[in-house]
Amino acid sequence: MHRHTRLLVAWILLYGGLLAAWHFMTAYEFLPPFFFGRPIAVWQQLVDWFAGGSIWEHLWVTLIETLLAFVLGLVLGLIVGFWLGLDRSSAALMSPAIISFNSMPRVVIAPIFTLWFGLGVWSKVAFSASLVFFVIFFNVYRGVREISPVILANARMIGANGRQLLRTVYLPSAMSWVFTSLHAAVGMAFVGVVVSEYLGSRKGVGNLILQAEGVFDINGVFAGVVVLTGCAIFLDLLVSAAERRLLNWQPR
User: Fold this and answer.
1) Are 125 and 64 within 8 A, CB to CB?
2) Counting Cβ atoms within 10 Å, is residue 76 exposed (0-12), middle (13-18) or buried (19+)?
3) For residues 139 and 180, is the Cβ–Cβ distance under 8 A?
4) Which residues touch 164 (CB under 8 Å, ≥6 apart)?
5) For residue 225, how many other CB atoms are within 10 A of its CB?
6) Could you tell me which residues come within 8 angstroms of residue 100 by beta carbon, excluding any fewer than 6 positions away?
7) CA distance 135 to 143
8) Contact 70, 132 (CB under 8 A)
9) How far is residue 41's CA from residue 84's CA, in Å, rounded to a whole number?
10) Who's near 162: CB < 8 A, 6+ residues apart?
C-alpha cells in the first residue's frame, strides 16, 4: 500500500473512531449531551446554517477581518523584524518595550481596542494584528540575526553592497523563519478576531458562537468551532502552497 494511502486510512480510522466514540458516549449518555453535544446535531446545525444562508454574512465578516489582521501584522512584523535585526543599536533601545508589550496579556486589554475603534471591523483587525505581529517579528528578527558571519563576509568580499546583501542573503535566510511563523500566525489571526467578536460585535462567527452559548446551545458552539477550524485549515494550506512555490530552492 502506498504511503499516502496508508496515511489517509490512518486518518479515517483515527478521526472516524473519535467521532464514533463521541456519538455513542453521548447517545447512551455516558457523557451528558447537554454539556458535550452530539455530532449529528452539530452536523445538522452546519447544514441549517449553510443551506439557509444565515452563516454566509457572518463568515464573510470574520474572514475579511482575519485577512486584514493577518496582512497588517505580517507587514509590520517584517518591517520591524528586519529593522531591528539589522540595526543592533535600535534593537537594544527598543527591546524592553517589545518584551513588555509581548508579555502583556493582550486578551485582557482587548476591550480597550473596542473602546478605541468601536464595535466595527477595525477593533477586531487591530487586536488580531497585535497577536500576529509578535509571531512574525520574533521569527524574522531571529532569522536575520542567525545569518552566518562567514556568508556575509564572503558576500562583501565579492563586492555586494547593502541592497544586494538584503536581497540575496538576508531575505532568503529570513524567509524560512517567516513561513514557519506564518503557520502559527494564521491561527493567531483567527483567535484574535474571534475573541474580539466574542467580546463585542454585531456580526461574525464569534458572534454566532456567543449567541449559541447564551441559550446553552452546545451544538451551535461546536458548529461555530468547526467552521472556524475549517477556515483556518484552508488558509494554512494556502500558506503551505506559497511556501512550496517561493522556497523551491530549498532541499526537500
Assistant:
1) no
2) middle
3) yes
4) 155
5) 14
6) none
7) 13
8) yes
9) 51
10) none
Helices (H), the chain: 3-27, 33-36, 39-52, 56-86, 88-103, 110-117, 121-145, 149-157, 162-165, 171-199, 205-214, 218-246
pLDDT tens for each residue of 123-147: 888 888 988 998 888 888 887 777 7
Instruction: Spell out the residues 6+ positions from residue 208 whose beta carbon is closer than 8 angstroms to its own.
Output: 55, 58, 220, 224
For residue 80, the SS3 value is helix
Q: Phi/psi at 119 (nearest 5 deg)?
A: -90, 5
Position of cell 476591550?
111
DSSP secondary structure code for residue 245 in this structure = H
pLDDT at 111 over 60: yes
* Burial of residue 196, with CB atoms counted within 10 A of its CB: 0-12 exposed, 13-18 middle, 19 or more buried: buried
- Do residues 185 and 135 lie in contact, with contact meaning Cβ atoms separated by under 8 Å? yes
If you compute the radius of gyration of the chain from its CA atoms, what whole number of angstroms results?
A: 22
DSSP 166: I
Output 181 or 49, whichever has higher pLDDT. 49
Question: Could you give the CA distance from residue 205 to residue 199 in angstroms, rounded to a whole number?
Answer: 12
